[in-house]
Design a protein that fits this description.
Blueprint lengths: L3 E2 L5 H12 L6 H7 L4 E5 L3 E8 L2 E9 L8 H12 L4 E7 L3 H9 L3 E6 L9 E6 L15
Parallel strand pairs: 4-5
Antiparallel strand pairs: 1-2, 2-3, 3-4, 5-7, 6-7
The structure holds coenzyme A (COA).
The site of coenzyme A has 20 residues, from strand 4, helix 3 and helix 4.
């Protein structure tokens, strides 16, 4: 999987997937362009992306989307883990609707923990769940290979 740091040349395919994944809630071209200076992104061309903001030692994830025909193949998990590893000293935050089972499953599979609930936050009446992932423990991915 060829994960890249997004730049303005990625705008067209990001908009295409944005539309496929979010429909009427998709971010428009104008909105994305106006935020290009503040958002950072990682993605796999034509397949999916994560958009986030970096502020000091904190990262807030705003968007994660995988093209529908490539979903449930662990692609979002690999993309998110790539970002978590790349920014391993940062604390991550995100907000998700309590109705979004796939995203909740993804975040929990990646080690995010629910820290707060905003009741009936969204227009459809769903709650906003706030998730956090602290900086990666230096030993998190470490294992001793004990010689026999
Ligand atoms: C959320 C989203 C990015 C997940 O992408 P994905 O590539 O299908 O996710 P993965 O295959 O990496 O799944 C990783 C884990 O997340 C969970 N998960 C993913 N989809 C799920 C679903 N439909 N139901 C329940 N759990 C799900 C599972 O734990 C899964 O691990 P498993 O497949 O080993 O069981 C994708 O569904 C999507 O683009 N949705 C529309 C956009 C959106 O709502 N984004 C989030 C808010 S910004």
């Amino acid at each position: 999987m060829d994960i890249k740091i997004l730049n303005k040349t990625d705008l067209e395919w990001v908009l295409f997937i944005e539309d496929l994944c979010f429909g009427s809630r998709a971010w428009s071209r104008e909105m994305l362009i106006s935020h290009l200076g503040e958002f950072l992104g990682v993605g796999i061309k034509d397949l999916g992306y994560v958009l986030y903001k970096l502020a000091g030692d904190e990262i807030e994830i705003y968007r994660i989307a995988i093209h529908p025909i490539h979903q449930r193949q662990s692609k979002a998990k690999r993309l998110l883990e790539f970002l978590l590893n790349r920014e391993r000293d940062k604390t991550f935050f995100l907000e998700v609707s309590s109705h979004n089972e796939s995203a909740i499953g993804l975040y929990e599979a990646c080690g995010f923990q629910k820290i707060h609930v905003r009741k009936h936050y969204y227009e459809d009446g769903s709650d906003a769940l706030i998730y956090k992932k602290p900086p990666m423990d230096v030993l998190e991915n470490f294992s001793f290979d004990i010689p026999s």
